[in-house]
Amino acid sequence: MKFASGVWWYVVPLLLLAFPAFVVSPTLGGLFVVAAAFTLFFFRDPERTPPFAGIVSPADGTVSEIRTEGDRIRVCVFMNVHDVHVVRAPDDAIVERVEHESGGYRPAFTKESERNEKVHVGFEDSEVTLIAGSFARRITPYVEEGDELGRAERIGHIAFGSRVDVLLPPEIGYPDLEVERGEKVTAGETKVASNGDANADWEWGG
Question: For residues 114 and 151, what is the distance between their CA atoms, to the nearest angstrom?
């Protein structure tokens, strides 16, 4: 099992505290060990197998909102505490910008989260936005301007719960969507929208 970047900054202090805690109380020491194990679970980074074509979900979680912004569609994915928090590229693309936006730390499932801290990863015709939540105090992008990415390649990690949005290319309309509000999605594997790839899927399948 792989783990997301930065996991040992959280796990090592918990394990170091566990040893003296065991001297004071076996229960207290056990709590530190459990906390370390939970942190490892939270930072897990499993491999994913993307579909041959299409735009995939950038995050594990539940589709919390689908809305129109001008001539574009935004799909929002809320990540619960038990979801994998590694964020992935929705399609093959070149990173054109990585921008940090300061903000608060309101619960990611509320409308107030629009004012939370964010990191925008912009591509030629789409954008992924990593949004901090009430407990998510650290967003770690893995990419920088000019990086060439494949579909489902890792682009960042958010520590301890949050939300990820994907702003779809302008040519994608509601008939192209393959998810709906309330649906569970898997980063890098669940197809959020087709992008004229129906024939490609048919040819690939034989």
Answer: 26
194 is catalytic: no
Q: What angle do CA 173, 179, 185 make, to 5 degrees?
A: 135
Joined together, the tokens standing for residue 14 give 């918990």
Select, from the ranges 7-11, 140-144, 157-161, 196-200, the one with the highest average predicted confidence (pLDDT). 140-144
The domain tally of the chain equals 2
Give this prediction's pTM: 0.81
Same domain (yes/no): 201, 102: yes
Q: What is the pLDDT of residues 99-113, one digit of tens each?
A: 998 876 666 555 666
How far apart CA 136 and CA 179 sit, in angstroms, is 26
Mean of pLDDT values over 27-53: 88
Catalytic residue among 57, 126, 134, 162: 162
106 and 11 inside one domain: no
Domain that holds residue 163: 55-205
